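HUMAN: Please help interpret these tokens:
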Amino acid sequence: MVNQGPSRGCHTCKARRVRCDEGRPTCCHCRRLGYICGGYERKPPKLRFKVQVAAGPQRQQNTGAVASAVAAPSLARSPGYPEPDLAMGFFFTYFVDAGRTLASTRGFFEALPPILATEAKDSAATTAVTALATRMLSLWRGDAQSFTAPHKPLGVALARLGSALQTQEERVSRATPFAALVMQFYENMNAIYGFREVNRTHHDGAVALLMQHDLSISDGEIGIHVVRRILHCEVSYRLHSGTAFPANMEEWLKRNLVVQNPSTILDTIGISIANIQHAFTRLRQQPTPESWRAVEILLAEIETTETLLREWPSVLPNHWAPVTLPAVPDAVPPIPTYAGRCDIYPASQVAAIWNIWRCHQLILLKIRLAALDYKARSEPSEYHPPTTLMRGTRERVQELVDAVCHSIPFYVGNRYKRGALSDLTNPTILHTSYFDLDPSSEQFLKYKASDNYMSSEAHRGHIVVQGPWHMMTCLSAVINLLSGNDEGSLLLARALRPGQLNWMRKQFVRTAALVAIELPVKQQPLAHDVALLAGKVSEGLKMASGS
């Protein structure tokens, strides 16, 4: 082929990555499809100014004390870890601000700005966030061992938190338990990259402070944020570990949750799911002659909770509903899809909440199938084969798992390699989003009028940084549900479409690689290897099912 140089097409066709007929004053493609033609005039260049003051010794001048007073400080990068100010800017831009609203908040990232705004630079909360932010930036700069290696700011943050706990004034401050929650987030990341079970010491310490001093009740919106975070982490932990939700914790949380949003309502339903899961596990481990009666009670509780989950979408804002793209955008490499379909959402956090809702339903379906099988086996005269148990369930399982698969292009687009800072501006990386819709369409106009709206550049940045984490969290949960050796997992997996579980395993490996989590084996991963990796990741995610 002959290289004919840069494209002379209109700006709209260039953005859509399609061939332009270069018609004047507007091209035929844009007129035919109803797009607004961007024209052909060259856009002004985007300029970025960089400080280029030399980091070496300055030339001596005979200006006496004045020269030493105005000498430029060294701007060399601090050895061993990123500069705190640069790291905080990166962290707040891509993790804290973009894609988050009060309707979707789970109480962690959204509470950072108001808390830090009143804290000193050397406070427990500020040093904790600095430690987390510097590690996040290190990870994006290519340090694969970032969270498991020694880290000086982490030591500073832990020491500062320890000293805060020794002072009565700081012990009753709203910022101290929040600093502990930030340290718990750091521990979560450390556990994920260390392939180990997470330690919840910091979380338990924050809860103890809050319950002892009742800090959340009188602390307004920030207190509500903190309680939401506690609730979300507790539900995540109970569902992962199979333990019951503590009654005193449930009573305290519900008393303090005076304002609920869709995410909080879903987490409240998660309390019931965790208790049902624990009750059925205990029933199987300690059967009694009256077990069949306990199964009947359990099935009734499952039905009640399933009704709550079915009604949950009615509390959502209208623009949260997933929108199916009419066609997958062309890209090199192509965007992987399941059955050629992809759904888009207003923001990464909104899609994560939808996927948690789907996972909650899959957990209940698994328990229902296992309970029916247990009941049938305990009453041989009424035994029903698996095909009978699956009646009416197969379509629902397929519908839920399909929806998870259709969200993958939105989260990770056509990315295959480990994330780097250059991904934020790499034009070959494409994600499906509302910006693939016709700007005059009803769906796009609803999105533009919503509180989730952000510019194309802001959306790209937040989905590049947050997307793989949310998708990996969801896929690890679904794969664990479907890969167990218990009867419920086997029956659930039997309802899937042929080859669907293998497709999800491949997408999980791809998504985990984007955040530098890879299988230790070099050859083609086997199903057992992927299930093992998903299990290890879930151990670290017990305290954070998608923050």
User: Anything to note?
Assistant: Confidence is low (pLDDT under 50) at residues 47-82. The first strand starts at residue 323 and ends at 324.
